[in-house]
Design brief:
Helix content is 43%, strand content 32%. The chain is α+β, with helices and mostly antiparallel strands. It comes from Undibacterium pigrum.
Length: 133
């Protein structure tokens, strides 16, 4: 019995290490995206807004517009790159999280959804990637 537990432990730790590495990569991507957007004049409102059913990586202010930003990073363009990784399901979760966030506001500002896609060393900022109806 003890041998079985010992053999399971490395597998469990390997998964934790992989998630930690993935999270670190995501944090680095968000930092790059944040710096890129701030250089363009946007102001950070909140980072990593989480709610049941969704999340927003960055919430920024662009003049009078509230911007919900998804950050995606891929090491290469294989399988379509960072842009292609934003599926319709992910878009629905982003819209849901934005709606939950907006419930905390007394007034409803103009909003848009942007994507910062990082493929290798290239950063692309796409505005209005989701039209929420």
């Amino acid at each position: 019995m003890r041998l079985a537990k010992t053999s399971e432990t490395p597998d469990s730790n390997a998964g934790a290490d992989q998630r930690t590495s993935r999270r670190r990569s995501g944090d680095e991507a968000e930092s790059l995206a944040l710096a890129h957007l701030q250089k363009a004049g946007l102001k950070l409102i909140q980072q990593n807004f989480l709610c049941k059913g969704g999340e927003i990586d960055l919430i920024m202010q662009d003049g009078a517009v509230l911007v919900f930003v998804e950050v995606r990073k891929r090491s290469s363009m294989q399988f379509g790159g960072a842009i292609a990784s934003v599926t319709p399901a992910k878009q629905r979760r982003m819209v849901h999280a934005a709606q939950v966030y907006l419930l905390t506001k007394k007034t409803q500002p103009a909003c848009r959804f942007d994507l910062v896609a990082i493929d290798g060393e290239e950063i692309k900022w796409l505005k209005n990637v989701i039209v929420a109806g």
